[in-house]
Amino acid sequence: MTNTPLSTDVLVIGWGLAGLVAAAEALEAGRRVILIDQEPRTNLGGQAWWSFGGLFFIDSPEQRRMGIRDSVELATQDWFGNAAFDRPEDEWPRRWAEAYLQFAAGEKRAWLRERGVGFFPVVGWAERGGYGAIGPGNSVPRFHITWGTGPGVVAPFAAAVEQGERDGRITILPRHRVAELTSTDGAVTGARGVVLASSRAERGVPTSRDEIGEFEITAGATIVASGGIGGNHDLVRAAWPARLGTPPAQMLTGVPAYVDGSMHAVSAAAGARLINGDRMWHYVEGITNWNPVWPSHGIRILPGPSSLWLDATGTRLPVPLFPGFDTLGTLAHLRTTGHDHSWFVTSRQIVEKEFALSGSEQNPDLTGKDVGLLLKSRLAKGPTGPVQAFLDEGPDFIVENDLESLLEQMRQHPGGEALDIDNVRREVIARDREIDNDFTKDAQIGMLRSMRGYRGDKLIRTAAPHRLQDPSAGPLVAVKLHVLTRKSLGGINTDLDGRALGADGQAIPGLFAAGEASGFGGGGVHGYRALEGTFLGGCLFSGRQAGRAAAL
Question: Domain containing 453 — which CATH number?
Fold first, then answer.
């Protein structure tokens, strides 16, 4: 069955955050819009809905209230030290980075506040680096948690689109999967594809690919906002760079299955240039979700700095690969060990203070904007409810009252046969000896003491230094950690208006890209590494740019 061909001013492919922003901007400019996605309507908001809602700002009121001195110059130093742009094709990503830094220091916060988006007052310090001043990492805390987490970021743009639907200015079509971008005289003029069988699946749950019809849409401008490849392990492994070692045989999945990269090949077939596909962002603190929504569903621990981090053999990770310091550096190191997992050895006191879980559903207090629950869960004694659920039910968690019992259980755990138990014991005892003095040669202990000089860390993110075997801090906890797929840092090469570029560097008439499909801008605004809080921001900025330009 072929549906009646449709026409519109702007066609947006993908209703994640970037697609919603682009559609809202085109609507605001008075254009007619069609918004399509391969999933059922329950997934409006896409991957962003599941996120923790972290946003990167520069010299924000929240930072200033916490005593943080930030500037565009310092943030630029951090961004470019992190990105390490080194390719000719990084010309547009560099420009996007410069433009985004101005956005993050300028109108970004006010633009969101006008739409009702608020922020948690304590600013987090993610990707701390630990190298020199011009090396990777954030020099100061910049991770602003949205009040309402990912759903709170999505809400105003979803509301704008739904209002446009009620007004008859936008048509939203679920279960439409694009197979081809159509072209006329070198210009992209829309898309055609298949209509999938309707589904009542809940958000994030995989859906069928049963085809029940075909569609064709003609558009003056087409915006690809279809996300990355993190839900497709075959594509992740195919793109895996040699500099990160061999891809893991076993990985957890940090995004729903529909994040499948299907529009990359479709866009390339229409002439779009794909760049930096070997740049990617995967986490090394993944834990198996005891209550999964999608296949191999993993959750990331957002760790504070105190846990002892060991590889699969029980060898401590080298400086500065401490929890929360350098995600990609840690991934590259662990891929040299020949094993797909590593371990935290920690205490319940550290877990209570320092373990946060990524995901809107793992943070009901922040997501639900529930101040009472927040005070009970974040500031009261004991772990949050979701963290406690993992302690009780998570297959990767081991809890024991003494070190010898913990070591025995670690040894018996799947993958534990690789552990050198004697070495783990030595590492724990040696680390605890260092705690007994105000002086130390242990860089991690020195860093965590320093971090407690920041009010935000002392209040909710860094436990008071203590011996892991201190009975008052117990019981002891071991956590088996896995590689967790998440973000594509490369994608469709675009100019600052979000126009897709061809192999000759010229804009393809009628074709735009935004969000993760465009590497969050330009085909890779982050370069090799991300500073965190910059993925949602990249969707906001690139979606806004593409939506405004497509509406001209």
Answer: 3.90.700.10
